[in-house]
Design brief:
The complex is a heterodimer. Chain A is mostly helical. Chain A has 12 helices and 2 strands. Helix content of chain B is 47%, strand content 12%. In chain B, α11 crosses α12 and α15 packs across α16. The chains are: A mainly alpha, B alpha/beta.
């Protein structure tokens, strides 16, 4: 009997302690959990529900099944928005990633690297609206600094960056690359620092040149970081809104009209919350598909070790 | 409730107990949480209006807020009723989105301003009160016919139902900078030309070319569909058929096409500058203040800024027209509507009718106010003419008398104004063909207008 009592008591205490620990754990994550529920999960579910309804933001909702999706897929404005967003993504992601990688490589070796890191990271901690307003001045066709330099230094007449169809999306992409460079650079720097020095030392002993060292050792070991940054960058570029909203508001005409702007206009200008939600769900599935494809492809090119 | 509980509740309702003490004692006495909540709600615990409090809301800048607070305080003092009226100012930015959210959450004010392009959405949502009976009743200080007919816009449906009252209005006229005109060598003033019946588009264009020659902006075209339509209407054109309730027909109307084409040619030639091509932060008003532009189109809303700018010499003139005389031009209007869920529609209407009455408008607009009365009564109209600011302020009243609010067909169709402005932007910025764009607008707007009109039935 004594043996039995002695064995049950610690077991019971242990269980109580585990429950107590779990409760404390839940209590600590509760604020975050509430935030996640209120600002992410509940709106996500709501968007799926609204996408099947006709609702003007007030009053009764009418359930219409997939009608909103059919309408949106046939909506020429959404098609324009998709093409523009895709063009923007094609411009921003490869160029942005390449530049960030080059800057990270440069900064990782340079003297006073902390200063340069801070310098490149400054736009990331600056409000995107402030950035957009600044670039509105720089890119103005008649009074902008960029065209003044082009005209006075290079004797070239610059275009109207934000009002010319040919230049508007590349201009927005340029601003986006500039403002996002610091964030991607920091991730690449972390990736570079996580590569064990033994690999490069071994390669050097074997007589590898600097180019070969980068191409055969650093780059392959950096592929998990490149993969992560590319997934995040593609998602961000498909969700572009603030820069476009301030720089051009989708104009001239619909030349820089993007998917999220389409969602915003449908919902808040047009009171078509059902259609706006259906477009948001379509964007969700586009991003999900792209991410799944990237995960599937990463098995072919991402190396988690040598 | 037992006696102790009842005494506690009574003490709270009589104001002998504060809220915190009441809640503590109530819990100690075992009053249910539901009862506490109900008592608190009855005594102003919720965010909506209560038995002795009615809220009204509008957009307002810092200067206007004080004026509206003063009006509300004055009304509270003069109307010795058991109801207290509270003013809840809201920012102009995203005002309608916020209003929709509040209406959705049941926290919207009892009465509120609604823009001319938004009111139809509240009518079709059935969230605002139909006002015909109240406006026609003895309680009304201003009957519907007291207001200028052209001001009703989308607030009055084609069948005569009224859902909002014009609080005041802003007829759009051309403000001209005398210094810039002098510098450009323009010796005959636009006012003289108007008085002689020679204020035509050709005369205006001649002035713009002279201003362009001194490297200044001739005229800044705002991104506003109704201001663009002004050049069609003053040219004798038609933009929407059925008195503004029907289809977009500007593409089939030669005079409207001509008006648009003139604007397009002007932007191409550089005598007209489209506002979205100005540097960020420099709106037409700033260009005007800094003596960089000859003409801008705007309502009386610029007066407080212009009169406070030292050295600025300005005056107003109506739009030039095909006949050389004054022609109808757009008017910006805001309406006051009553929340259908207001528990006190009669008391709210009493405030609204005082607010929009000639006396109410005089109170709000005197001393260099930023709008023009929406009623044709001398007591209110005097505020526009006081101090002769600007010199020919009478044109504000003249333009109001013959002008028109945003066409109901456009105002009742969600997002149509934005979409039309977006469609026209390539005309001003890239020289896109006017007739093609107008035809596209007609195709795009037709079914949407039809649908919106059906929803209002």
């Amino acid at each position: 009997m004594e043996y039995q009592v002695a064995s049950v008591a610690p077991h019971s205490n242990l269980r109580r302690r585990r429950i107590s620990q779990a409760l404390w754990g839940y209590l600590f994550i509760l604020p975050q959990l509430i935030g996640l529920l209120v600002f992410a999960l509940i709106p996500l579910v709501a968007v799926f529900i609204y996408s099947g309804t006709i609702w003007d933001g007030l009053g009764e909702m009418e359930f219409v099944g997939l009608q909103n999706f059919v309408e949106q897929l046939n909506n020429p404005d959404l098609r324009i928005a998709m093409v523009n967003t895709l063009y923007y993504t094609v411009l921003t992601v490869p160029v942005g990633l390449t530049l960030a990688l080059l800057v990270a490589l440069g900064v990782s070796k340079v003297h006073g690297k902390d200063f340069y890191r801070a310098l490149y990271f400054l736009p990331v901690v600056t409000s995107s609206v402030a950035i957009a307003v600044l670039w509105l001045w720089l890119l103005n066709g008649d009074f902008g600094l960029i065209n003044s330099i082009l005209s006075n230094v290079f004797y070239v007449e610059g275009p109207n960056w934000l009002t010319d169809s040919r230049f508007v999306i590349p201009s927005i992409a340029m601003v986006s690359i500039w403002s996002g460079l610091g964030y991607n650079m920091i991730i690449f720097l972390a990736g570079l620092q996580s590569i064990p020095a033994v690999y490069s030392e071994a390669a050097r002993v074997d007589g590898a040149s600097r180019f070969h060292l980068f191409w055969r050792v650093t780059l392959p070991l950096l592929t998990p970081t490149i993969f992560f940054v590319s997934v995040i960058s593609i998602i961000h570029s498909f969700q572009v809104f603030d820069l476009v909203f301030v720089l051009t508001n989708g104009g001239p005409g619909r030349d820089s009209y993007t998917i999220v702007q389409h969602i915003y206009r449908l919902g808040f200008d047009g009171s078509q919350f059902g259609g706006a939600s259906a477009s948001a769900v379509l964007l969700f599935f586009i991003l999900l598909s792209l991410t799944l494809v990237q995960f599937w492809l990463q098995r072919r090119w991402v190396h988690y070790d040598m | 409730m037992n006696v102790a509980q009842q005494n506690t509740a009574r003490a709270f309702l009589n104001g002998k107990l504060n809220r915190r003490t009441f809640v503590t004692r109530a819990i100690a006495l075992g009053i249910s949480l539901g009862s506490i909540e109900a008592l608190l709600a009855a005594c102003g615990g919720n965010s909506g209006s209560t038995a002795d409090s009615i809220r009204w809301s509008n957009w307002a800048n810092t200067g206007e807020i004080q004026r509206f607070k003063d009006f509300t305080a004055d009304y509270n003092q003069k109307n010795n009723k058991n109801v207290r009226y509270n003013f809840v100012p809201s920012a102009n930015e995203n005002y309608f989105t916020k209003l929709l959210t509040e209406l959705n959450g049941g926290t919207a004010a009892d009465a509120f301003y609604v823009g001319d392009g938004d009111i139809a959405r509240l009518i079709s949502n059935k969230t605002i009160l139909q006002l015909n009976d109240l406006l026609e009743s003895d309680k009304s200080k201003s009957r519907p016919d007291s207001f200028l007919d052209g001001l009703w816009g989308a607030a009055r449906l084609q069948d005569g139902r009224i859902f909002g009252v014009p609080v005041d209005c802003n007829p759009v006229v051309l403000w001209f900078n005398k210094k810039v005109l002098d510098e450009a060598g323009i010796t005959t003033s636009p006012i003289s030309l108007l008085e002689e019946g020679k204020w035509t588009r050709e005369a205006f264009q001649d002035m713009l070319e002279k201003i362009q020659a001194i490297d200044k902006y001739g005229f800044i075209l705002e991104n506003s569909s109704s201001q663009m339509y002004a050049w069609c209407i003053t040219n004798g054109g038609i933009v929407y058929d059925q008195d503004g309730y029907g289809k977009f027909v500007a593409h089939e109307d030669s005079k409207s096409v001509e008006g648009f084409q003139w604007l397009a040619d002007g932007t191409k030639a550089g005598i007209i500058t489209y506002t979205n091509s100005l540097p960020q932060g420099q709106g037409s008003d700033l260009a005007f203040i800094s003596n960089q532009v000859g003409f801008i189109a705007a309502g009386r809303w610029h007066l407080p800024t212009f009169r406070g700018t030292e050295g600025l010499e300005y005056d107003i003139v109506p739009y030039p027209s095909a006949t050389g005389e004054m022609a109808p031009a757009p008017i910006a209007v805001a309406y006051m509507a009553i929340n259908k869920k207001s528990e006190f529609p009669n008391e709210t209407f009493d405030f609204v009718t005082n607010f929009v009455s000639a006396e109410g408008q005089r109170f709000r607009l005197q001393g260099g106010g930023n709008a023009v009365p929406s009623v044709q009564e001398e007591i209110a109209e005097e505020v526009v003419l006081e101090g002769n600011l600007p010199e020919h302020a009478q044109y504000f009243l003249d333009a109001r008398d013959i002008g028109f609010a945003l066409f109901p067909a456009e105002a009742t169709t969600p997002a149509l104004t934005t979409d039309i402005q977006t469609a026209l932007e390539p005309v001003w910025l890239q020289g896109k063909n006017v007739t093609d764009v107008l035809a596209e607008i007609a195709t795009m707007s037709g079914p949407r207008i039809e649908k919106a009109q059906e929803e209002l039935q």
